[in-house]
Amino acid sequence: MWKWIQAFASPQNFYQTSAKIIPWLMMPFIALSLAGLYWGLVVSPADYQQGDSVRIMYVHVPAAWMSLFVYMVMAISGAIGLIWQIKLAHIVAKVSAPIGALFTLLALITGSIWGKPMWGTWWVWDARLTSELILLFLYLAYISLNNAFDNPKTASKASAILAIVGLVNIPIIYYSVEWWNSLHQGSSISATKISMQIDMFIALMLISFAFKFLYGALVLMRARDEVLVREQNSRWVKTLIEGKK
Predict the structure, then answer these.
(1) Pick from 35, 68, 143, 174: CA 20 to 30 A from residue 104's CA?
(2) 243 and 101 in contact (C-beta within 8 Å)?
(3) Of 68, 73, 61, whose CA–CA distance to 36 is shortest?
(4) Is the CB of residue 143 less than 8 Å from the CB of residue 97?
(5) How far apart are CA 118 and CA 76, in angstroms?
(6) Which of 62, 65, 64, 47 is nearest to 200 (CA)?
(7) What is the pLDDT along the chain (245 residues), one digit of tens a residue?
């Protein structure tokens, strides 16, 4: 297994293999998105309190989950790059940051749209909202720090340390509704219970998995470009470019 990982982590092998994987990620993304939209807009019922406003949840909740998931992937990849000096790990961390920032922004925007009719305001300095906003700032800080150095190795190391330190915010976001008095509703899904109508749960899961396939495809697309930039002086890249002329 470790030998396969090392072989895949080779920039040249990654570039060749990832091109074959991307279509297999995009197809499930499209299929799950269409199914999720149909289930969320047609099959699932309106909430007895929130009415049709509850349908924002089918984008807001998966986006919020992805904002946490992508950050953890970014931080873990950065740690792997620091410890084992794997170039591809740093690349995955770098290209994940803008994607994670967009998911975080989407979660904040959809949450504000939902909050206006439910709370009567677009924004409150609630523990969950504030910690999610801090997550967006962490993503932006990572991106800025990564672009602040001309040397890619120095940039990768510095931004990886920042990402690892920022991991402390993840449990704060997750448990904020339990640790503090919060306007934000608690989790309806846990390891032991599902506190929602089954059609709502199905719609939520469909979109959630669709977002994960989208993330995988976007990471590979962006990583391929980053690999070419970092390996531009390598023989295989020069051969590849000459072959396309």
Answers:
(1) 35
(2) no
(3) 61
(4) yes
(5) 37
(6) 47
(7) 555 555 567 888 899 999 999 999 999 999 999 999 999 999 999 887 788 888 999 999 999 999 999 999 999 999 999 998 888 999 999 999 999 999 999 999 999 999 888 888 888 898 899 999 999 999 999 999 999 999 999 999 999 999 999 999 999 999 888 877 776 777 777 666 777 889 999 999 999 999 999 999 999 999 999 999 998 888 888 888 877 76
Nearest partner of 33 among 69, 57, 58, judged by Cα: 58
Q: Which of these, 62, 60, 55, lies nearest to 38 by C-alpha position? A: 55
> What residue spans of the chain are helical by DSSP H?
2-9, 11-38, 57-84, 87-119, 127-146, 152-166, 169-179, 198-230, 235-244
Would the pTM count as exceeding 0.90? yes
Bridge partners (DSSP) of residue 47 are 51
SS3 81: helix
* CA–CA distance, 203 with 234 (Å, rounded to integer): 46
